Amino acid sequence: MTAIDVTPAGNQLYSVEIRDEDGSSSHTVTVPDHFIEQLDTDGVSVQDLVFAALAFLTSREGHHELDEQVDLAEVAQRYEGFTERIGALARQRTLQGIEADTDDGEDHPTGDDRLLAEVEQEQERGDVTPTDDKL
Fold first, then answer.
1. pLDDT for res 114
2. Is 123 helix (H, G, I), strand (E, B) or coil?
3. DSSP string spanning 74-120?
4. Among 31, 64, 123, 126, which lies 20 to 30 A Cα-Cα from 134?
C-alpha cells in the first residue's frame, strides 16, 4: 500500500512524501492558479487535490520515477482527463473524511476549513508549535 503525505510548503507549493514497500521519495508539487481555476474545487482543499494528483500519478508511474519537482499544470498536459479525474478523486477523499467524522451526528468542517481544524487540534495536543498567532 502506498502512503502519501502532503504538507503545505509555500505559496502554491506542497511538500509530498510517498512511501510504499519499495521505499520512499520526496517531491515538491506546484499548483498554479490557472490550473486550480480549471477544477471544480467547491468544498475541496488544494491539499486534497495534491493528494489525489499524486495518487493518480503513482498508479501510473512508480513514485521513484516521478520528478522531484512536479507541476500539476504540466502533468495535466501529459494525461488526458487528468483535471476531471483528480477533481473527482479529491471530492471523494473529502467526502470520505466527512463520512468518517460524522458518526457522532455533529457538523464537521470540509476542505480548507477541515485542514485548519486539524492543525488547531494538533496544536492543542502539542504535536506542532504554532508559528502564526492567527491560527
1. 58
2. helix
3. HHHHHSTTHHHHHHHHHHHHHHHHHHHHGGGS-----HHHHHHHHHH
4. 31
**Whether pLDDT at 109 is above 90:** no
DSSP one-letter code for 21: T
The kind and range of the H/E element at 6 are strand 3-10
C-alpha cell read off for 41 = 474545487
CA distance 7 to 51: 10
What are the strands of the beta sheet with 23-30, ordered from one edge?
3-10, 13-20, 23-30, 69-71
Q: Is 43 left (phi over 0), alpha (psi -120 to 50) or beta?
A: left
Residue-wise pLDDT for 32-72, tens only, equals: 988 888 876 677 788 888 998 998 998 888 888 889 999 99
Phi, psi of 83 (to 5 degrees): -65, -40
Q: What is the pLDDT of residues 68-83, one digit of tens each?
A: 999 999 999 999 888 8
- Calculate Rg over the CA atoms of the chain: 15
Q: Is the pLDDT of residue 99 over 70?
A: no
